[in-house]
Amino acid sequence: MRPVTSDRTALSIGLLDDLAVVREAERLGYESIWTGEGQGKTAFGKLERWATATETIGLGASIVNVFSRTPAALAQSVATLDAHSGGRASLGLGVAHPGVVEDFHGVPFDRPLPRMAEYITLVRRYLAGVAEPFDGEFFSPARTSFWEAFEPVRAEVPIYNAALGPGNVRLTGEYADGWIPYLYPIDRFREAQEWLREGAERAGRDPDDIDVAMYLLTSVDEDADAAYRAAAHHVVQYLRHIPGYYEGIAREAGYGAEVDAAQAADSDEAAIEELSEGFVESVGVVGTPDEVRAQLDALREAGLDLPIVRAPMSADEDGLRETMAALAPEGR
Fold this sequence. Notes:
eight-stranded parallel barrel; about 15% strand
């Protein structure tokens, strides 16, 4: 087994926008705090606000999808955040799913993997100030540099890809600085690291240079049964209300019958009863604080560089703060 070489820990607060929680995460020693956007507030809007209320904690957008903005707009947004935060920005990209891309943004969910590769390439060119034209499949800008009035704080900002399938994980190894899977069964995670390595080697890159992060469902309670039910409720929301996306990895990991039963159940509560403990515990860390810390160390040994702790969506503010405290780097 791989030795634990770091206690790097990050935090996601989902779609929340709470300055008190952000400040507490910084006080507790979290390396970075991450937020997505879905169909709510923009990630960059929240992160810009957080930058003014913090001094040291990293600020990660994850995920923002590669259909709703041009590469230039993405580069402008992350470069501005990086400037306003003194070089603390990270960019987590994703292809999202048709429910967001087509139903909300009204654009076709077309050829997501080639689009992702082109986005990463172009965002890097904009940040580096490459003035030459780019002739791409999706975008062909005449220049990929900002006006002289704005020079990015850093020519390189870490770019992560929220990949799930084999092709996208290989693409991550080929193009991105880091990988952020979510609700990823641990057995599949071990296999996927080989896909990551294949992609890196295809591009002549060192696989060890790719930061293996993970949005990690983290359900902590002194009552282990309560922790389990909160985690199971979270998993059910993704299986029943975002069909055709996260369920694919679960099926490939051998949980297809449970996915089918949960989706066919009459209610979310009934769906929880269709999930096995093995399934729920394979996609997160669940239990008492001591149990969760031990599970987290095991994941680090399995190859996880940066866990991004994510409390179950049913957690209230007290539950979120308890999760933060239980996994805080300062308390390790």
